[in-house]
Design a protein that fits this description.
The chain has a single domain, classed as Vanadium-containing Chloroperoxidase, domain 1. It contains 7 helices and no strands.
């Protein structure tokens, strides 16, 4: 019980450390909203460019899409069904930069999706994979910054995405 309380306190501390910068600078708020809401579409579009530019990468693109979808719409939704949690804006005075989301917070679907993509890409192409992991990290931190996720939500989402990428890669071997 003490360990759980300590983890919750760390979660709140890290959330405040990131979210405290909201509403200080217009450029940072705009960047945070872009990364939290729209950057994931840009990342997915880059993945599709792999398909059009290098047709030999069709298997990587297909696996990445499957891993991301399994992470976001199967594993994440199953965990949310078993363990619904409140979003940060429900618990107190936070700086919310986007519209409220009416679903469980744990784990982050954005983190699960983007880390699922990044894992598969990394397994095929280390350099591109690192860039996708950086994008996934930026998306995840932005979700905390705009006030819709706790750090534990995005950490769990990242773990779900990485696991999903690993699992899909094992199941759909080349």
């Amino acid at each position: 019980m003490i360990l759980l309380e300590s983890l919750k306190n760390i979660d709140h501390f890290l959330f405040q450390a990131i979210n405290q910068f909201a509403f200080k600078w217009f450029w940072l708020d705009s960047l945070g909203v872009f990364l939290a809401r729209y950057f994931i579409y840009f990342v997915a579009a880059i993945l599709l460019l792999f398909l059009f530019k290098f047709r030999k990468n069709w298997r990587m693109v297909l696996k990445a899409i499957i891993a991301a979808m399994v992470a976001r719409f199967v594993i994440t939704d199953f965990i949310r069904l078993l363990h619904p949690t409140l979003r940060p804006f429900v618990n107190g005075d936070i700086k919310l930069l986007v519209d409220k989301v009416n679903e469980s917070a744990f784990p982050s679907g954005h983190a699960a999706f983007s880390f699922g993509l990044a894992t598969i890409i990394y397994l095929y192409n280390k350099k591109a994979g690192i860039l996708f992991f950086i994008a996934a990290f930026l998306i995840s931190v932005a979700r905390i910054f705009v006030g819709v996720h706790w750090p534990s939500d995005v950490l769990a989402g990242a773990a779900v995405g990485i696991f999903s990428g690993w699992l899909i890669n094992k199941v759909l071997r080349d």
